Amino acid sequence: MSAAEAPGLVVDAPADGPSAAEVPWRRLDPRLIWADALRVVLSMLPGAVALFVFDQTQGMTVMPLLALAGWGLWGALSDVVRWLTTRYRVTETHLERRTGLLVRSHRAVARELIRTVDADARLLHRVAGVRRVTIGAGQTTTALEAALTLDALSRESAEELRVELTGAPRERAAQGPPALAEFDWRWVVHNAFGIWAVVMAAGLLWGAHFTLGAFGVDLVGWFGSLRDALGLRSTAAAVAGGAVAVVLLGAVGMGTQFLTGQAFFRLTREPGEEGGSVLVTRRGLFRTREVARDESRTRGISLSEPLLWRWLGTTDTSLITTGSFWWSEGVTVLPRGPRRVALRVAAAVLGDAPLTAPLTRHPAAALRRRLAWALWVTGGCGLALAPLGGRAWLVGLSVAAPVTLGLAWAGYRSLGHAVSGPWLVLRSGAMARETSALRRGAVSGVCVRQSPLQRRLGLATVRVSTAAGNGSYAARDLAVADAVPLAVAALPEAAPFREGDGPAPARIGSGRPAP
Known about the structure:
The chain has 515 residues and is of the alpha+beta class. Helix content is 39%, strand content 25%. Among the domains are: 26-115 and 127-166, no CATH class; 189-262, no CATH class; 297-362 and 415-497, no CATH class. Strand 17 (423-428) and strand 18 form a beta hairpin. This is Putative membrane protein. InterPro entries: UCP026631 (IPR014529), YdbS-like_PH (IPR005182).
C-alpha cells in the first residue's frame, strides 16, 4: 500500500476493521537522545582541541572543523524532533508510521507486501543500545528511500518487530540454525584491490591533509622529506613510488573497510510466516546489520565476475527477487569472494545447481560482430586525435586497439545460455561477466530482437522480462536457430507465434559447449 505525503494533509488509517483503532501507537526509544548528545560532543571535540590546545585560528583550518561540529549539532536536533513526533504501530494487516513537525506524514505498508526487514546499528547506536529498522516492500519514495524506516528502536523492540513481520520464531536456539556461509579471512584478498582502492587512497590523503593541518602538521612537507630520505631524486622515480604508495594505502583502506563491514558475517535460513522461510544475514564489527529476506519471493540468483579479477575467481552474489532493487542490501546474500563459495551458496539457496549446467557456446559470428565494433571504436579514437597533429592519431590507435580488441574477445568468451530443468541460465558481459539463473515460471514476457548487423550475421538477442531483479535478462547474439527454441522454453505461451515460420538454416548455430 502506498503512503500519502503532503503538507497539512491528514490521511485516514487503512480499513483494517474495527480492531485497527484499538491498536496502540508506539514511540521510538528515548535513548536515541543520549546517543545524539554523545555525537555532538564527538563532533565538537576536534575543533575544541585545535582552537584551545594548538591555537589554530586560520580560516582554512578552522572552517572544516566548525562545519563538522555544525553537522553533528544539526543531526542531533533533527533526531530529537523525530523522536518527539514519530509514532508507529502494527495492525493485523498493516505497518503504519506517523511523523513530521511542520509537514505531517502518515505511511502505511501492507504486511503481505513486506519483502525484507533490515536492522542495523552504527557504533553510537550500539553504545546506546538502539537499532534502526528498515522495512522493504518493493516501493520507494521520490527520494529513493526504503518503504519505511524506524530510527531508532531498542534492541528488544527491533527484535519483536522482526518477529511480528517475518513470522520468525520468538525464541532462537542456543546455537542458532546451521550457517549456509560464514566469514572467511581469505575473502579480504578479493576486496582489497581495484579501482576503488585508488579512490579510497585519494579520500584518505585529502582527509588527512585537512585534519592534520588543523593541528599544525604539514603533510605535503612530510612527504617531501620522505622522498629525499628514500633517495627518489628523479621525477619518474618519485611518481612510481607515489603510485605504489597510493595503491598500498588504498588496499589497506579497502581491506579495513571490508573487515569492519563484513566481520562476523553469517548467512542462515530460518522459519518464516505460514510455513515459509527467510534468508537472514548478520554482519558488522562497529556497525552491525541484520537483514531478513522472504524466500518465497526469490526467483533466481546472479553471479557477477569482474574482468580484472576473474583469474582469481572473484565473484559477487545477488538474489533475483521481487520487491527489491539491484542496489539494495536485500539482494546481496554473500560478500565478494571466491566463485566456488558462491556456487555452493547459490545451490543451497535455490535447492538446485543450475549455475553448474553446461552452457551452449554462441557462434563465431558473435565474435565478428564484437570485433567490428572494436575496430569502429579504435578508428574513432584515431580520428579524434588526428587534429592534434603529428603522430597523435597513431598513438591513439596503438593504445585503443589492444583494449577494444581484448574487450571484444572477453565479451565473446562470456556468451552462453542453457535451459536446465525449471531454470533459464544466461551469461554475458565483457567488463563484468554476469551469469543469471532465472526460474522459468517467473518469466512474464519474451522478445526476440535483431539489428541490421545481426540479421546479416545470422544472430539474434532473446530478452526475457520478469517482475524481479533487473526486470529483464538477455541472451545476446545467439544463433537464429537457437533463438526461437530458447524463447519458447522461457515462455511456452510464445509457441503459437512460430506458426508460419520456415525452418531455420541448419548452418546457423554451433551447439558446442561454452568454455
